[in-house]
What does this fold into?
Amino acid sequence: MYKAVVIGGSAGSFQVITKILSSLPKNFPLPVLLSLHRLKHVRSGFVEALSIKSTIPILEPYDKENIKPGKGYLAPANYHMYIELNKRIALSTEEPVNHSRPSIDLTFETATQAYRDKLIGIILSGANRDGAYGLKKLKQAGGLAIVQDPNECQVKTMTEASLKLTTVDHIFTTDQIINFLLKLK
Amino acid sequence: MNRYELGIVDTRNIIKTLHDVYDYDFKNYALTFFKRRVEKFIIKHNLKDADGFIGRIESDEAFFEVFLQEICVENTEMFRDPSLWRVLKEELFPTLIKDSGTFKIWFPEVSSGEELFSTAIILKDLNLLKHVQLIASSISQLDIENTQKGLFDPKKIEVNDANYKRIFSSGELSNFYTFEGDKSHWDTSLIDNTKFIKQNIIFDDYPKGIKLVLFRNQMIYYNQILQERYIKTIYNSLVPGGHFIIGNNEKIDYWNSDKDFTLVNKEESIYKKKLA
It folds into this structure.
């Protein structure tokens, strides 16, 4: 019944993301939208690093690219990644939000407009407050909000900011996140 | 966070007003982008809602110019994607000058000017600045005026300086700008020879005989209809074999079925117009 998973992460989230992506079944039924803070002047390397262990293909989408199930879409360096109502990616070089481009808030907010209550949002380890507002919008629209257990996070700021703003559905460890995703049909 | 959400009917009314009153047709901008941008504008200028926006803008032409400036997305920084600028500096510019001794570069939307000044700084370093005609168009008169004055956002200084060092092994970007109080200015002698053109969204006229068009990360704000119109115009402005550079994560493949352009550098999204 869910149509997409959107994941936000920053400092300390790389290993978590890698573990999640390496645990998904090859035929994972949903698209995975990844808005992760990264060095803006380093264009290559990140998607390759994520791809090494991922069971599903991970790509840095082109502007207006169609979103398909079973693929991971990583926000490219120095772009915001929006989700359009027609389930396409729209890239943007508009000003940073919360000092971030990509902005997790903007990906979560636009994904919420596109998928409404059919969206799962996951906030992982990170060093700023980005994502908290986006997760709130997602939850308000009836989506399912998950936050990584702050006790497990390398940096807690992002998950704690999200928990402060939103009563989430689940506070999960990485393994629990994986188990949850494995049950999706 | 202060938010205001514009309905789809309101958005269409706004587009209609701008078209009727000023003959600027935004209907082929990417709709969600345009809507978001107008929402921000309404909040920033305390216009309350779509009616407030329409009432103010249709009676105040100077305010419409402010809108045009704010709908234009700024270039993010100087030398965005340093590897592209290294290709321009080390390969493309030297080749173009060897071929013809002089050439023209066109920026179809100069917005905040960073692509223009980055180009000028590299040309100056190569001692080519006086041999190259730079042409900068914009839908925003205010952007043109600010660019002519060399104004830029001092918040970008740090990233600009860092990018410069990723391209030049010696020297400092600060040789090309001054920073006093809260204002930063480029050395405008860099653009002494630049021609500026105020344009509408649909080009009535466009420069011809162009060897290189730099148009990165602007078409992402257009829908396919307007993208095609720009690409067609750019195609016509270029000489055979001329180059066309777009943003890293942009594509023109859907338009390019006749192989009018060949992708000659995939990493940097450099296309070349076919020879005949």
About this structure: Helices of chain A lie at 14-23, 46-53, 104-115, 132-140, 157-165, 174-182. The first helix of chain A runs from residue 14 to 23.
